[in-house]
Amino acid sequence: MTSLVASKQFWQLRSDLKKARELFKLTASLPRFFREKVSLSQAEEGIKRALENRNNTFLELARTQIYEYPRSPYLQLLRLVGCEFSDLCAHVHYHGLENTLRKLAMEGVYLTSDEFKGKKEVVRGGFSFRVCPGDFEFAISRPAFYFQSTGTKNKPVSTSTSLDWLSLRALGTAVFSSAHDLYSYSHALYDAILPANSLNHLLTNAKIGMRTERWFARRIPANNTLEKLYFRSVTYLIVLMGKRFGPNFPRPEFLSIQDIRRIVDWIAVEKRSGRNCYIITVASSAVRIAQMAWKLGVSLEGTKFNVAGEPFTEAKAKTIEKVGATSTSRYSYGGGNPVGFGCARPIHRDEIHVSQHLVAAISNAKPVPQVEEQIHPLLLTTLHSAAPRLLLNVENGDYVVTEERECGCALEKVGLKLHLHHIRSYEKFTSEGMNYFYGDLYELFEKVFPSEFGGEPGDYQLVEEEEHDGQTRLALKVHPSVDNLDESKLLERLRIALANGSRGNRFMTGVWQEAGSFKLKREIPHASPRGKILPLHISQPKIKLRAREG
Ligand SMILES: [Zn+2]
User: Fold this and answer.
1) What's the confidence (pLDDT) of residue 499?
2) What pLDDT, on a 0 to 100 scale, did the predictor assign at position 282?
3) CB 545 within 8 A of CB 529
4) What is the DSSP string of 16-28?
5) Which residues contact 175 (CB under 8 A, 6 or more apart)?
6) Quick check: bond before 535 cis, omega within 30?
């Protein structure tokens, strides 16, 4: 036991020292990062060049990071299917990168989301092993800082972002900004400070010479004092450096949900000065801003939201459009790996261009097992060593429709022809007999309930709580602002909807059919630290919550 504690302390110390070293490098490198801006023409050229060299870049990455790295989990999978480096080269050159990745996936060279996170053993044929997230990090040390996933469904995961990676990401941001005419807008960010990844947006904007006028921020609780100190100091360090060397760098202005009116006021002031506003945020927060504007009778005409973090549903989009605003989306994996940018001439609501210069995206021909409907998981592959992690056919829990089409927007003109849309999660919530698709709840809570019982997206939420006796109880939270609610009719409607379940998945009613195990609460639905209101909230056991608050 003692040696285990000592070992844990050793690894913690090693990780803290690594962070401190990288922070020192970061401080020294930031002035140059801000000075060397990326122009639109440089960005266009950079993407075109990267696309031309795509196959070779991937093969070089495979050679140095997989075939010359005996501990690589991908090497184990490739060896299992008898794919040596020369075979990989021949296949990529002859059949192309995506076809090679599809073939490898069919043979078993892929990782499910749970396998990648080390939550499940990788089992292929008679062979099995387990991975840990550190197996996928690049050994190259670059000036970087860390952020964390907010752990909505899983334990928070730390990811590093290097300045090299942000410089590469800036190429796509520049072309995306040109496609949507964003260089002429007033920019703001409404998202949390570190450990959330919103600094990435401020830094890439600065890299392309774009000023961000305001940073409306949310606070995120840290796990411990040391972590809190790290996140605070890095945030303020980057802000200070940005103010000194960047085009403009806003300080975070902390807002509670009740203060959201300040964002609407800012938009109104900018509009009076003849400027349209562009706000990067999560989808639920964009909806909340639109709801506030509606309540105040303020038109948001000319305002554009860039939303991500949750499925951008039709109901959310309609709430935003009701006040005259428009939206586009971005799509990333784990915050640090951008997958794509919203098309400027979309046919579908959530249509994005895949950043093919940085990532390869395919649908696995092998469907998700034990699901009646044919669902083909999205598989992602990293194409650059500056990325936070090396992915080779890794599932992220989503499935999509892929399509190559000539939309005519600036993103397509640089060669990013692959589009994704209808991005949905297939990861199921299974607890206490429940078994259903997460996506189904969006339809029910954002569209069906508001149209039948009143209210808007974000007003209904299913909450799973662990009570003192260890029993899991479900409650339907309904925002107190929903008037004249027929509670028993609503519960009956919920019961029927869940019992029928779509996609052939039946909701097992066992838990909440028991008397008293399912109730309705008139409370404001829970928002995650980043502001997301998910249709199902699973509250953490109280003991863990106390530890996080400390
Ligand atoms: Zn397009």
Assistant:
1) 67
2) 85
3) no
4) HHHHHHHHHHHHH
5) 40, 43, 44, 47, 341, 410, 411, 414, 416
6) no
State the amino acid at position 526 in one-letter form: H
- Compute the C-alpha angle 456/461/466, nearest 5°: 165
Specify burial of residue 444 (Cβ count, 10 A radius: 0-12, 13-18, 19+). Answer: middle
How close is the Cα of 364 to the center of ligand 1, in Å?
24
Give the Å distance between the CA of 182 and the centre of ligand 1: 15
How close is the Cα of 118 to the center of ligand 1, in Å? Answer: 36
Strand segments (E) across 120-157: 122-124, 127-129, 144-148
Measured in whole angstroms, the distance separating CA 409 from the mean position of its chain's CA atoms is 24
Q: For residue 400, how many other CB atoms are within 10 A of its CB?
A: 22
pLDDT of residue 82: 95
The span from the CA of 337 to the CA of 172, in Å, is: 13
Confidence of residue 435 (pLDDT cuts 50, 70, 90): very low
pLDDT score of 304: 97
3-state secondary structure at position 53: coil
Question: What digits encode the pLDDT tens for the residues 478-492?
Answer: 999 998 888 888 888
Task: Name the pairing type of β-strands 418-425 and 394-404.
Answer: antiparallel
| 58 Cα to the center of ligand 1, angstroms | 25
> Under a CB-based contact definition with an 8 Å cutoff, are residues 150 and 528 in contact?
yes
Q: Cα of 353 to ligand 1 centre, how many Å?
A: 6
Q: Which is nearest to 69 in space by CA: 134, 166, 126?
A: 134
How far, in Å, is the centroid of ligand 1 from the Cα of 225? Answer: 45
3-state DSSP assignment of residue 475? strand
Residue 276 to residue 269: CA distance in whole angstroms: 10
Residue bearing the bigger pLDDT, 373 or 207: 207
CA dist 495 and 509 (Å) reads 8
Residue 542 confidence (pLDDT): 36
The C-alpha atoms of residue 377 and residue 397 are separated, in whole angstroms, by 7
Give the separation between CA 182 and CA 242, rounded to whole angstroms.
20
Q: What is the Cα–Cα distance from 378 to 361, expressed in whole angstroms?
A: 7
> CA dihedral defined by 101, 104, 108, 112, rounded to 10 degrees?
-10
* E strand map for 393-517: 394-404, 418-425, 428-431, 434-437, 460-466, 472-478
433: left (phi over 0), alpha (psi -120 to 50) or beta: left
SS3 515: coil
Q: What are the chain's domains?
A: 1-69+138-367+402-426 (3.40.50), 429-549 (3.30.300)
Identify residue 418 by its one-letter amino acid code.
L
Q: Where residue 168 falls among pLDDT bands split at 50, 70, 90?
A: very high
Q: In this model, does residue 303 exceed pLDDT 60?
A: yes
pLDDT in tens, 123-160: 998 899 999 877 888 777 777 777 665 544 455 566 77
Q: Separation of 352 CA from ligand 1 center, angstroms?
A: 7
Q: Is the pLDDT of residue 503 over 50?
A: no
CB 62 within 8 A of CB 25: no
